[in-house]
Amino acid sequence: METSSDDTRSSADDALARLIEGNQRFLRGEARSAAVRRETLAELAKAQRPYATILGCSDSRVPPEWIFDAGLGELFVVRVAGNILSPEIAGSLQYAGSHLQTPLFVVLGHEGCGAVAAALASKHEGEQFRSRVQLLLVSIVPNLPDFDELLTHEEQLSHAVESNVRWTVRQILDSPEGQARVAEGRMKIVGAIYEIETGRVRFLPPDERT
Questions:
Q1: Mutual orientation of helices 114-125 and 153-174 as an angle, nearest 10°?
Q2: Vertex 67, ends 62 and 69: CA angle to 5°?
Q3: Residue 191 and residue 189: Cα distance in Å, rounded?
Q4: Contact predicate 176/151, CB 8 Å
Q5: Which residues contact 122 (CB under 8 A, 6 or more apart)?
Q6: Which CATH architecture fits 5-203?
Q7: Closest CA to 194 of 26, 14, 18, 50
Q8: Over 80: is that where the pLDDT of 100 sits?
Q9: How far is Cα 78 from Cα 56, in angstroms, rounded to an integer?
Q10: Rounded-to-integer distance, Cα 115 and Cα 157, Å
């Protein structure tokens, strides 16, 4: 049965509400911790039906399943340092959209991101890192904000983290697959920032283009 664009938007909004509710449970210390039933594992062995796709950072302090209080099979998670977009990452996202048909995509950055901090040092201070790390930073540097001497280092990093999330969102939307799915009304994508000290996920208001 075909899914209408209105149904997709409704599903995406429902998925976003589930993420927000899960993060609120996490903040209250009421996360679900019951053991997974054998019947649940048997059902998951047949197929996966995640309600959202998360592109997040590899940082060990930012596990999406924990901070959104999600169970097995509920989230399709792709993690890479700096939550960047690469051909390999794009392939995973395309799989999530075309095969798993998750209506909601979230680009999840986090405060104090080491990859973004390294990109800032590379851009503004000329610092060089190991070759593979430097290649990763090339994906972050182009859209970093200009250096502002009036801001503290922490404020600069916070602005850069948000800018990097928005940059990844725009790259996904500008891809042929992203443009096609948005035109069909089959995808909603949002950016978000995880606050490590508080555990809160802050969803970003959309740019005009998103």
A1: 100
A2: 145
A3: 7
A4: no
A5: 128, 129, 134, 137, 141
A6: 3-Layer(aba) Sandwich (3.40)
A7: 26
A8: yes
A9: 6
A10: 10
Identify the pLDDT of residue 178: 84
Distance CA 135, CA 118 (A): 12
For the chain, domain boundaries = 5-203
pLDDT value, residue 210: 44
**Phi, psi dihedrals of residue 21, rounded to the nearest 5°:** -65, -40
Question: Tokens representing 65?
Answer: 């399943």
Instruction: Give strand pairing partners of 78.
Output: 55
Task: Count CA atoms within 13 Å of residue 165 on its CB side.
Answer: 29
Greatest Cα pair distance in the chain: 58
Q: Per-residue pLDDT tens for 6-41?
A: 565 569 999 999 999 999 999 999 988 666 778 888
Q: What is the pLDDT of residue 208?
A: 55
The secondary structure of 73-142, three-state, reads CCEEEEECHHHCCCHHHHHHHHHHHHHHCCCEEEEEEECCCHHHHHHHHHHHHCCCCCHHHHHHHHCCHH
Q: Residue 141 and residue 176: Cα distance in Å, rounded? A: 23
The residues, any chain, with a CB within 8 Å of residue 175's CB and separated by 6 or more, are 90
Cα separation, 82 vs 138, whole angstroms: 11
pTM of the full structure:
0.90
Euclidean distance between CA atoms 75 and 68, whole angstroms: 9
Residue with tokens 């998103």: 210
C-alpha–C-alpha distance, residues 102 and 33, integer Å: 25
